[in-house]
UniProtKB/TrEMBL annotation:
It comes from Algoriphagus locisalis. Pfam families: DUF2911 (PF11138). Residues 1-18 form the signal peptide. Keywords: Signal. It comes from the Bacteria. InterPro entries: DUF2911. This is DUF2911 domain-containing protein.
Amino acid sequence: MKTYQSILAAACIAVAFASCSEPKTAETSESKVAEETMEAAAETESRPSPLMVKEGQISGKAIKVQYGSPAVKERQLWGDLVPYNVVWRTGANEASYVDLAEDITVEGKTLAAGKYSLFTIPKESGPWTVIFNSEWDLEHGHFQYDEKNDVLRVEVEPVWEETSQESLSMEIENPGIVIRWEKLKLPISIN
């Protein structure tokens, strides 16, 4: 009988201690958000083509671009890795996008405020086609591209420079958004 009473007393003490402490599996929403933020940062750091965000103003209008920045890595880009006459996501991984706070003019044509994916059609010679598409949140870039969602297409003359740039960049600078990669400079005029 004493053994039974001892076991019962020990069980009561264990239950009392367990009920006084918080369950170890419970997490606050703040710790979950912090953990998700750290995971996203780690994923960004581990990407072969880092996710880049650039913000600036052109003619007093706020513009933001987001893109995956691939590197040349001694590869043949134009006409090979990036084929001619085929829609290119203009970056790596998910589709690059442009976020416009106000209406702007791109190469003389009006583009309403909003978010747009940015695609190009590279050409071996002559102007490239620059495309702004209403489906801006595409996980797999040009694989999900649908021409019926094009909002604006303009022609832009590429400039081929002597010096080479290893990683793709999109800068908000005169005359608008300037894309550079390898020896390419694609200046998209914005007002």
